[in-house]
Design brief:
This protein folds into two domains: 245 residues, Glycoside hydrolase/deacetylase (TIM Barrel), CATH 3.20.20.370; 86 residues, Immunoglobulins (Immunoglobulin-like), CATH 2.60.40.10. Helix 2 packs parallel to helix 4. The chain has nine helices and 20 strands. By secondary structure, it is an alpha/beta fold. Strands 1, 4, 5, 6, 7 and 10 form a six-stranded parallel beta sheet that branches. Strands 11, 13, 15, 16, 19 and 20 form a six-stranded mixed beta sheet that branches. The protein starts with a helix and ends in a 9-residue tail after the last strand. The longest helix is centred in the middle third of the chain and has 23 residues.
């Protein structure tokens, strides 16, 4: 009887603790000389790997992380994957040696046309093949690295779908030709941009879609909008980055609107959360300013509308929302806005 009471107590305690979730980190360049907005220095990258090790994370290749999340990974596990977009040569020159020192494997999302044309500072086809042979995972980042959400002048929906589908499948075919075997259908959205039409297209082609927004993932993740934590020099300090790495997925069941393209200066979105979350302390920030949150309840759920306090600039903006999960950890949700100005797309 005493043993039964003890087991029951342990179950209650474990149920009260927030579950560990898997996280995916996203890098581009690892260099002292490349643009700060898409780079970390080699010293910063080395520190990140050291901190992951010290905090007990198991760093695995992306396909292993995906499979373990789908299989219902033990909530006490700490899983992380290191990913890179575009296949810059600083990855193989600076980052890969640090990972291999620890026996860790990377995942590189390859934009195949710049590699095929050997545009500097891209890797070569031989380097892509060599990384695969060394146990790293090469996956699809499109062929031409287009803005998937944008239509060309006079382009019909049907023509847009064919153009984007051809580009995605061309990237996959080239990678598999270079490597000589089939690869997982993983796709990282160029520039992190996607909308319902893009996600539907990717889903119909059988892909998992990886985004550029902070957050963790568990078995309830939307596999066409998988969060990856973007890291650059501005957000490379572990005091802030560590909070994102230790984060838990916010239990969002619906986001309204589901499209993130807007022309509004201060666009709002609404999150649907469990009813018990109504009125909970939720802190949201957009461009360094606290955003306005308005709660409503009813029909077994809580809903919160999030509105930036200041105007968003034309371009991409992330609105980050967090809530305490106890123990110095946070639930995390990140929302991407793509703001057009005067009906025109922003320059890259």
């Amino acid at each position: 009887m005493q043993m039964i009471r003890l087991l029951a107590l342990l179950l209650l305690v474990s149920a009260a603790l927030p579950a560990q979730a898997a996280v995916i980190l996203l890098y581009h360049h690892v260099s002292d000389t490349t643009p700060a907005a898409t780079s970390v220095t080699p010293a910063q990258f080395r520190e990140h790997l050291q901190r992951l090790d010290e905090e007990g994370f198991e760093v695995v290749r992306l396909d292993e992380l995906v499979q373990r999340v789908r299989d219902g990974a033990d909530p006490r596990e700490k899983l992380a994957s290191i990913t890179f977009d575009d296949a810059y040569d600083s990855i193989i020159d600076n980052a890969i040696p640090m990972l291999e020192e620890r026996g860790w494997q990377a995942t590189v999302f390859v934009a195949t046309e710049p590699v095929q044309q050997r545009r500097r500072p891209m890797m070569s086809i031989d380097q892509i093949r060599a990384l695969h042979q060394r146990g790293h995972l090469m996956v699809n980042h499109s062929h031409t690295h287009p803005h998937l959400v944008r239509r060309q002048d006079g382009e019909s929906s049907r023509a847009w779908r064919k153009r984007i589908s051809d580009d995605v499948q061309r990237g996959q075919a080239l990678l598999e030709e270079w490597i000589g075997e089939s690869l997982p259908k993983y796709f990282a959205y160029p520039y992190g941009e996607h909308d319902p039409a893009v996600r539907e297209l990717l889903g119909n082609l059988g892909y998992i879609g990886f985004a550029q927004r902070s957050g963790a993932l568990d078995g309830n993740v939307n596999w066409l909008d998988v969060p990856r934590i973007p890291v650059n020099r501005q957000f490379a300090n572990w005091d802030g980055l560590g909070d994102k790495v230790r984060a838990l997925p916010m239990p969002v069941s619906r986001v309204t609107p589901d499209a993130s393209i807007t022309e509004e200066a201060r666009p709002s979105f609404e999150l649907t959360l469990p009813e018990s979350w109504h009125g909970r302390g939720l802190n949201c920030f957009a461009r360094g300013q606290a955003a306005k949150t308005e709660w409503t309840a009813g029909q077994g759920a809580a809903r919160v509308r999030v509105t930036p306090a200041g105007d968003l600039a034309a371009g991409r903006s992330l609105v980050n929302c967090t809530a305490s999960a106890g123990g110095g950890r946070f639930y995390w949700y990140s929302h991407l806005w793509m703001r057009k100005a005067d009906g025109r797309w922003y320059a890259e």
